[in-house]
Amino acid sequence: MNKAFIILIIITEINYLYLSPVHPSKNKNLKKSSKIKEDRKLDDLSDDIVIIHLNDVHCGLNDTIGYDGFVLYRDELKKKYKHVITADVGDHIQGGTLGAISQGTAILKLMNKIKFDVNLIGNHEFDYGIEQLDYLNKEMTTKYICSNFHKTEEDKPYFDPYKIVEAGDKKIAFIGALTPLTYSKTYLSTLLDDNGKPLYDFYADHDSLASIVQKYVDEVRGNGVDYVILLTHIGMDVEEYTSNDLVSRIQNVDAVLDGHTHKVYAKTSKDKNGKDAYFTQTGTKLANIGQLIIKPDGTIENSNIAAVSEPSDTTGAKKVTRGKVETWVNTEMSDFIDELWGEYADELNIDVGEVDFDLKVFPEGITDSHANFCRKQECSLGNLCADSFKSVVQSDVSFLNGGSIRTDLKKGKISRKHIIDVFPFFNSVFVKEVDGQAILDALELGVSKLPSASGGFPQVSGITFDVDTSFNSTVVTDSNGVFQEVTGKRRVSNVKINGQDLVKDKKYNLSCSSYIAEGGDGYSMFAKFQSVNESIFTDSDSLSHHIKYNLNGKIPEDYNKEESTRIFIDKPSSETTDNGGNNNNGNDNKANDNADDDNRQITRIKLNGEYLKKYGILSFLLLFVLF
Description:
By secondary structure, the protein is an alpha/beta fold. The strands form eight sheets. It has a six-stranded mixed beta sheet, covered by helices on one side. A six-stranded mixed beta sheet has the order 6-7-9-10-12-11. It is globular and about 75 Å long.
């Protein structure tokens, strides 16, 4: 009997050691928040350096994980690690209702409350103009960094090129770099002088971009930093300039916190010497939190966190469901976000109308901007938005970029907030008198990236046309992505203006956003024409007015269709030219649709009753055999 009692004690201890979720030896394997007391001494905390980062939040204050979830996750990490650093990789003040309606000041308040350690500027930080950007940077607790943005008459960067953060006895340099395509991704009028000459420069050449970044890498290495991390609002494998191409031209960089392309990945890519650099991007709208861990021996791990687990102490926290994601958030930060929304509630709740069906721009469950239907084909919401421009200002035709349409318009009541979610830029609506040739060139530029998605893809009203993608585009752009010419066969043919053949030298009144009128997305062909007038309407005002008054508050079933009625892709083109040029604008790059496969999501290990049931039965059987 003594023998049985001893064996039973041994089996019980084995179950405790290997199965108990509360045994200290198990906590190190759990990826979810460990139950660690807040009063632990600093010496008890891990020496690992943890850097958590966001990119392209685009005013998604409480989308998915949300800023309130980010704060909770940060605070939980601080209970385990001595050194926790936070970084934002750009495009945070624009892309949603609160950013648009407050010109970024609401997001400024939020970021100051969170107190990020490092902030990179994104191309959409320019959307409210240089003066507003200067104001926001002045008021921001943590100033912007960027190494490759400067005034043309000055060599020094406009913002500090880097920031050094100390973590114990280690120094980490964060160097910022912004896509050189910013010229074609924001308002040219804010970047050009009265004569159309650039006031600023982004080093829009692969070698010069690499050279300026390498200059600051060498500088901080010379100052004795232990690690160099690039913050790149550039992205991988989508546009002409890519973060992995940049790193392949430089050396002595340890990791890259990436952004701009709204992709999700945690991978490595080689520098010029063949050394691995760790790349992480988190998608958009806080779908993930990026995490980089630097071990005391210099080992680096990168991953993405898709949800925040239950904290060690649920006081001041709550569990929420956002979309299909269950996550935990910080209650105080959640309340602060609600207060920000409350400041604009009266304006946002104004009734506009209703719709009996979804006007979708994204596949179900996907918010990656490159999956936006309006960026590569005719879309019903694009038709509605283009019709609103044409109708409100009574133009012959209207033209808008698909990238300006940011989200679905869902079935049900439509409020002012829903409209601003669709059109968060507050662009003015312009009317320009342009010739038919300019329209032809604009359409050709707009479809030049097909089959890849492009923010410049045209959504139109009063125009129909065919597109042939069986050959490469012959559109030529400069290093900033601005249209120069068409050197060969055209993809666009059979262009009709309100049912009549387009005439190249005929003048047409064309309505478009101020962004397109001023050359955004490379549409330089419109910039040379004088404006007939600037409407009193913004893009969102135009859409609201059109629905409420022109459509009597009800979007008709005519927009509830998937088939094309304006843009017919892959009908053979009958138009040819005598000049058979080559496509040298870098449009062969394809979006890396498999980027999500590179995620290394943190796994949540859960020891549940099935394990205990299984091993409890084994223990009983062992006793039965022995006795």
